[in-house]
Design a protein that fits this description.
alpha/beta, Rossmann fold, 4 domains
């Protein structure tokens, strides 16, 4: 049985958390002060700490610092309030495994505990899946969503199966592909990226397979394509759903046989390649729309990895902001080290439609145009959309129902109304969980947020 030390000064909350945790078979010991917690830690070992930062006799950060000073690597989940965002950054530097904002959602509490314990049981800390990609590929994140991605990366890297990465623009799909390559047996081979949306369609076949001199106008010399360049390594096809439909047939043959021909050449060539693909679209929708071959889809969509948007990564927003700020400061020769609390609040509440890429652009603007050790609110440039609190669950407020023409059949309704009914039904089934509802409807979570926002504006246009 796992052993957990719960450090919480509120008797009511302590009893509540203890009841939740003991229900899943974990032995819980409680401490209501930092001093008592340190005594327990001196006299015994624990598999996990659940630590409230605001203790009556000390800041919970001191407990983490004490553990580090004594080289006691006990995984810790930190509980913190909205006013403690700077503390999130500080505790991340001290090695906290996860963060939960108060009031704590019971489901998230259990998910976080089981995830951290599973990782501790399965692996030594130095081999944890969430640390490998960060060290080697510029990949950072401590949220549950990103730990799941790191775990998938590690498992995918161990095989030679094709990987299909999906996610919104700016979520780090190419970094994910690079991490898969870095931890595979092909790490010493080439990693060749090819953006299918950036190459003119008439040149795409040459980019992939190469050409012989004189094969077409301006083919002035023999040229190797990505297939030849990636031999023995990984070929990353970004925005693959933008590929010409006819060319997809040739790619399918290459995936199936590992053989190809340069344009204008009769010689068959072979290449040993691991395929990793990415798109910001729903590839299944593209198959249904007839723009992406179904047979190619099933050949490439073997191991799917969905990159979570930044707004769904919780405390990672602050964690990433801190890392990016320090990296950019070093590059630009500046001295920025942290954010004032108002800025941390603003970063955490903004929805980040451009995801990590947008966050990096905003902080680059700050570092280039300003000086000082602390980022202040006036330094932040106007964000591309109105900042809003990121909801854990969407409001259950009913969507407006359009006036319906009576067709004499309840199954025959305007398409807009059927859309509303489908999304409402999915949210109700999954208790407002947007991610699960979106998965059931085979759409992206951002689509549900956008639709609900539009319906709310219809209900309350004055807001």
């Amino acid at each position: 049985m796992a052993r957990l030390l719960l450090i919480e000064d509120s008797p009511e909350l302590s009893a509540l958390y203890q009841a939740y945790i003991e229900e899943i078979g974990i032995d819980v010991l409680t401490a209501d002060t930092g001093k008592k917690a340190l005594q327990f830690l001196d006299n015994g070992s624990f598999d996990l700490l659940l630590l409230d930062l605001n203790l009556p006799d000390m800041n919970g950060l001191k407990i983490l610092q004490t553990l580090n000073a004594e080289d006691k690597q006990t995984p810790t989940i930190v509980l913190t309030g909205q006013g403690s965002l700077q503390s999130i950054v500080d505790t991340m530097r001290e090695g906290a495994a996860d963060f939960l904002m108060k009031p704590v959602n019971p489901k998230k509490l259990i998910e976080s505990i089981t995830s951290v314990l599973a990782k501790r049981t399965k692996q030594a800390p130095s081999d944890a899946p969430d640390s490998k990609p960060r060290r080697s590929s510029g990949f950072y994140g401590k949220s549950t969503a990103m730990r799941n991605v790191f775990s998938l990366i590690e498992r995918a890297a161990a095989s030679n199966a094709s990987v299909f990465i999906t996610g919104e623009t700016g979520t780090g799909k190419e970094l994910c592909a690079q991490a898969i390559h870095n931890f595979s047996d092909r790490r010493d081979g080439p990693m060749v990226p090819l953006n299918c949306a950036a190459v003119p369609r008439e040149l795409m076949e040459s980019e992939i397979f190469g050409h012989r001199k004189g094969a077409f106008t301006n083919a002035l010399e023999d040229r190797a394509g990505a297939a030849e360049l990636a031999d023995g390594g990984t070929l990353f096809l970004d925005e693959i759903c933008e590929m010409n439909y006819d060319l997809q047939a040739k790619l399918l043959r290459f995936v199936q046989t590992s053989e190809y021909k340069r344009i204008g050449d009769s010689e068959e060539r072979a290449a040993d390649i691991r395929f990793v693909c990415a798109t910001n679209q729903n590839p299944a929708d593209c198959v249904l729309a007839g723009t992406f071959r179904e047979d190619l889809y099933y050949r490439l969509h073997v191991i799917p990895i969905e990159m979570p948007p930044l707004r769904e990564r919780g405390a990672d927003i602050v964690f990433l902001g801190d890392r990016i700020l320090r990296d950019l400061s070093a590059i630009e020769g500046k001295e920025f080290r942290s954010f004032e609390p108002a800025v941390l609040s603003q970063l955490s509440q903004y929805s980040w439609p451009g995801n990590v890429r947008e966050l990096e652009n905003v902080l680059r603007n700050v570092v280039v145009l300003h000086d000082g050790p602390i980022v202040e609110a006036h330094m932040i440039p106007p964000l591309s959309r109105e900042a809003r609190t990121i909801p854990d669950q969407i409001s259950s407020e009913p969507a407006p129902h359009p006036t319906r023409v009576d067709h004499g059949d309840d199954l025959v309704r305007p398409l807009a109304e059927l859309e509303i009914l489908a999304i409402d039904a999915a949210l109700e089934k999954f208790s407002g969980n947007v991610t699960r509802a979106a998965r059931a409807l085979e759409i992206s979570p951002s689509t549900i947020y956008r639709k609900k926002a539009a319906w709310k504006a219809t209900l309350h246009p004055e807001r």
